[in-house]
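Notebook entry, structure prediction.
Reason for the run: the old model in the group folder had no record of what sequence produced it. Starting over properly, with the input documented here first.
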Amino acid sequence: MSSLSRLPSLPITLPGRAAIQAIRIVSASAITGVALPVPPPVIPNNGNLGLTFDASITQASADVSLDSSVTLNSLSLGGSGTATLEANNSGVGITLGTPSSTGNALAISIGGVLNINSGGSAAIDFSGGAGALNSLGGQINVTDGGTLTLQNSLTSTGTLTDNGTIGLTGVASSATLMLDDTGNPGSTFNISGSGTLTLRGLGQISGTQGDEVLVNGAGHTITGDGTITNLNLTNNGNITASTGNLILDVSSTGGLTNNSSLNVSDGSTLTIQNLSSANTTITNTGTINLNASANPTSLVLNDGGAGTTFTLTGTGGVLNMTDNAHNVITSGTGGESLVNDTVTPFRARERFRILPPSPITAR
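New structure, fully documented this time:
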């Protein structure tokens, strides 16, 4: 095994499109840019050697497509022009980090792009204390059938720092950011930074066990019209329903916490949904803003017909509505009740609507 540790790094240069065919690339090497012959090279199955490689794809215009699953200690993308890694084949995935990894298992700088679609997958292991960084100008795109998993089986928290853009766009099938704390119940997954995560259509953020904790960090934005489900949600940044219906499904936890800003853009809907038989607590120490200007703009409370109660609570919280009759607070099925604690005052300049038969009780 000692001879393996002296293996030289594997510089590979990647102009145009190329494919990496490998099962495991596991701590000595770099995949960097240079010039490849056609057809693209085949990196043999190194999994049996027990190696973990550090890879970087930095060549301008490099476009690397995975044909087989790969395990890397770390991956760097971008820095000198557009450099793309694509996991776009069913059953093909890339695993970044190990239970002993530290530092950033994924580092995307300006020009770096990670595309995951068509049944492809990527997983980032936070278990050893590793993190992930998507810098300004970096992109993570998960589309139809793609899954990006953040996993943590050992430590209490893991952080994805997003200063760029993350897109979860599902048209024909789901596009998923999965949080997995198998073996370590109640793990916290932080999404921090100044970037934006956009959900579209069947795009979703989901827990695997239902006890995962997602914290949207201060300054970070989650926006769109997809679904956040099967996890504990704490918002310390901005969550905005835009271009459709953003669903916050709290069925597995019975509530959510907003310490900053929940927003509904003009013409959009924010649905807080609990399809279990339990009541729902919305702890709001920040603001919930309905921002209608010309189109119906709704906060919907939906219990799927269970006839349960949604309670707004939290010191200093405000439900704030613009002066517009298009602002609506309503029930999903007609049997929901809203209890508004006095610590969460409604502030509306003049006009808004509360549609019956959803009762509102102040206490």
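Summary: The two ends are 70 Å apart (CA to CA).
The old model has been moved to the deprecated folder.
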